[in-house]
From TrEMBL:
Residues 6-224 form the ABC transporter domain. Keywords: ATP-binding, Nucleotide-binding, Transport. Gene3D superfamilies: P-loop containing nucleotide triphosphate hydrolases. It comes from Cellulomonas carbonis T26. Belongs to the ABC transporter superfamily. GO terms for molecular function: ATP binding; ATP hydrolysis activity. The lineage of its organism: Bacteria, Bacillati, Actinomycetota, Actinomycetes, Micrococcales. PANTHER family: ABC TRANSPORTER RELATED (PTHR43335:SF11), ABC TRANSPORTER, ATP-BINDING PROTEIN (PTHR43335). This is ABC transporter. The keyword Ubl conjugation does not apply.
Length: 226
């Protein structure tokens, strides 16, 4: 069995005044996709923030390669690509410049070719010279996703990647995430999209107050509809 890349054990998360959901335990290894599902406010983003080392757990642990996560470590930054809820970009850089900066900063060989590929994949090829304020909100979301795909990564963490994407890219998202897993990467995502979940055919963790069950894809879709 392949050693897990990311392991959460009785991970309890919150913002200082008690947990936002029951403790979660899971492991994600190379080739795995795991979805976090649950209603608004059930704790998906909070779990992802703790997994990324951005929020100290209230209890339990989360480890990357067997060591407590620490986003300041170079090994962590080299391994983990994440797209959260926040819109973060440099206002004076074009789409292409953003992606080149990200790829080059992470030491990608021939970043120009990688960036061209990502612009094409995310339907931004006609917007390579636009600054973020000249993009639509969905195009800016595409830019943030593309930035995760132009850098080296062993674990991809996405918070509701379907947000603001049109139907066409939503459909392609499942293929992109499956391809991640097929190339030996791990994917952890939070989602509200049953279509994406079904297309991914991946297990899920249902976040709740009492417990957080591991769900099959079909159970996860039912859980989302509760
Ligand atoms: N910065 C914060 N400080 C205090 N409480 C917060 C903070 N961010 C979120 N919360 C609270 O934590 C709980 C879980 O929020 P979280 O964003 O993790 O939920 P979620 O499952 O991602 O929701 P959604 O589906 O709406 O994105 C909510 O009750 C929310 O009000």
């Amino acid at each position: 069995m392949t050693a897990p890349l990311l392991t959460a054990s009785a991970l309890t998360v919150g913002y200082g005044e008690g947990a936002v959901c029951a403790p979660v335990s899971f492991a994600v290894g190379p080739g795995d996709v795991l979805a976090l599902v649950g209603p608004n406010g059930s704790g998906k983003s909070t779990v992802l923030r703790s997994v990324l080392g951005l929020l100290e757990p209230l209890a339990g642990s989360v480890e990357l390669d067997g060591r407590p996560v620490d986003e300041r470590r170079a090994e962590h930054r080299a391994a983990v690509a994440a797209v959260l809820d926040d819109d973060a970009w440099f206002p004076a850089l074009t789409t292409r410049e953003h992606l080149l900066l990200t790829a080059s900063g992470h030491g990608v060989h021939e970043p120009g070719a990688v960036v061209d590929d990502a612009l094409d994949t995310f339907g931004l090829d006609r917007h390579g010279d636009a600054v973020p304020t000249a993009l639509s909100s969905g195009q800016r979301r595409r830019l943030l996703l593309a930035a995760a795909f132009v850098r080296p990564r062993r674990l991809l963490v996405l918070d509701e990647p379907e947000q603001r994407l049109d139907a066409s890219l939503r459909r392609r998202l499942a293929d992109l995430l499956r391809a991640e897993a097929d190339t030996g990467r791990a994917v952890l995502l939070a989602t509200h999209d049953p279509v994406l979940l079904e297309a991914l055919d991946a297990p899920a963790l249902g976040l709740g107050d009492e417990d957080c069950p591991t769900l099959t894809p079909a159970q996860a879709v039912a859980f989302m509809g509760r």
